[in-house]
Design a protein that fits this description.
Layout lengths: L4 E4 L3 H12 L4 E5 L9 E2 L2 E5 L13 E4 L8 H12 L7 E2 L4 E2 L4 E2 L4 E2 L4 E2 L4 E2 L4 E2 L4 E2 L4 E2 L4 E2 L4 E2 L4 E2 L4 E2 L4 E2 L4 E2 L4 E2 L4 E2 L8 E3 L4 E3 L2
Parallel strand pairs: 1-2, 1-5, 2-4, 6-9, 7-10, 8-11, 9-12, 10-13, 11-14, 12-15, 13-16, 14-17, 15-18, 16-19, 17-20, 18-21, 19-22, 21-23
Antiparallel strand pairs: 3-4, 23-24
Length: 212
């Protein structure tokens, strides 16, 4: 990366990102996290500088940000962090683990994170601030929206559309040509065989609508 990076958050997802960045020889200026007790501690040798407002000590033209917040459910908080700092003029780095396979024509939005051993096939488009997590597979001609979390081990078949702000849980499978609207929650291990409407939670094999 051409600029040093600051990691937003010091949790588990941030640790995985730091490992990826160090593997890629990126320069990490530090971590910010709102928990006061973490200030002065280190994650994989990278210091926690303080709360989020420390970022403003670095001009937007001199650093890139990496969104270190993961999401076990809907990625709303992650989206809010992204939009807050974008509104302040900062830009987010795209992070790709060296072991990931990304077809040359894949379109990647700002701040996309593609983790270890994941695969993205030709003709696909990945929106801003989206996570394609460890060993996830996105097949050909998929459209993945902004602020989406494709969790570890997910299989997304060809021609699938996923709307903004949706979370697809660990090990879920999305069949060919399905459309999952925005702000949906697909439970871990679910197999989606029909389209999913806006704001819906689905779980099971085959996936059925469930109370959130």
């Amino acid at each position: 990366m051409s600029l040093p990076v600051i990691i937003l958050g010091a949790g588990g997802h941030a640790k995985v990102l730091i490992d990826t960045l160090l593997t890629s020889s990126a320069v990490i200026a530090g971590i910010v996290d709102p928990i006061p007790a973490l200030t002065g501690s280190k994650v994989l040798g990278v210091p926690v500088l303080g709360a989020d407002d420390i970022v403003t000590e670095f001009p937007p033209a001199e650093v890139l940000l990496v969104n270190g917040l993961g999401s076990a459910g809907l990625p709303l908080r992650r989206q809010q962090i992204f939009e807050r700092f974008k509104g302040m003029g900062y830009h987010f780095a795209t992070v790709i683990h060296p072991s990931a396979v990304v077809a040359p024509d894949v379109e990647l939005g700002e701040g996309v994170q593609i983790m270890a051993c994941s695969v993205i096939q030709p003709g696909s488009c990945i929106g801003c601030n989206t996570i394609i997590n460890t060993r996830a597979s996105v097949d050909h001609d998929c459209e993945i929206g902004d602020h989406v979390h494709i969790a570890p081990g997910v299989t997304v078949s060809g021609g699938v559309k996923v709307g903004d702000g949706t979370h697809i849980g660990v090990g879920a499978t999305i069949l060919q040509g399905m459309e999952i609207a925005g702000h949906c929650l697909v439970a871990a291990g679910a197999v989606v065989v029909t389209n999913v409407t806006e704001g819906t939670t689905v779980k099971g094999i085959p996936a059925r609508v469930s109370a959130r």
